[in-house]
Write a structure and sequence with these properties.
single chain, alpha+beta, about 20% helix, elongated
Amino acid sequence: MTSRRAEKGAGRLLSVLLACLVPLALMAEPPRAGLMWNRTGLPAAFPLQVRTSAGADYYLILSDAETGEAALGAYIDGGKFFKVLVPPGRYVLRFASGKRWQGEERLFGPGAQTRRFELPYPLEFAIRGAGIKGGHVVTLSREPPGGGLQAAVKAQYICQIASLEAPELLPGRAQPLRQFHLGGDARSRGILHLQWRLQLGGPQAGTPLEQWQRSLFLLGNPLLPPRASGLDGRGGQRPPARFRSYSVRSLFCG
């Protein structure tokens, strides 16, 4: 009798240990935050930033708004900075959140262990105006205890600006040309440039505001530094120069 009771006790203990080990076996190592896969075959060039709070991680899937096919997957560490580039198109954003990642099939676990959230409308990632890549910033926040997730969306842009490199003087010309600089401050010119890129309406012609904006770019503006004559003192000829190439920079402009 004693041996049978001991065997039953050992069997129960083994069952308890197996029950504890099964959930551990199902848990998977969380992937690195960022892009997991891109199934569109298109280059990822448009910005998507997601802001989250700490306490849970997130699994994000972008699905084509027309076909419903999964286009891109990404993993987000809750509370940390996250930004990814996505291919062009219109996508539905679906989020799953939880604390213990168990793989793409089980996500963060069954039932209440995985919370799901979908944006109510698709987001479009496309070119906006001349050389501007339009994307979005999505901010996820949790409602009061027991509630779900809510999202706020705003636009984000990447502008591409082309500029010529410094001129290369031909041999025998010692004095470089002084470069021409625009007047006004950089912020004012940047705002005007962004308005033009986004094709926003400008002020009415002839108004004081329109005349002030034109003064930032017209010759004769008192804010402009004097222009160099370009004479080298040896016959009054301007040194010939040529631009070797140009560069294109991308920067966030909105």
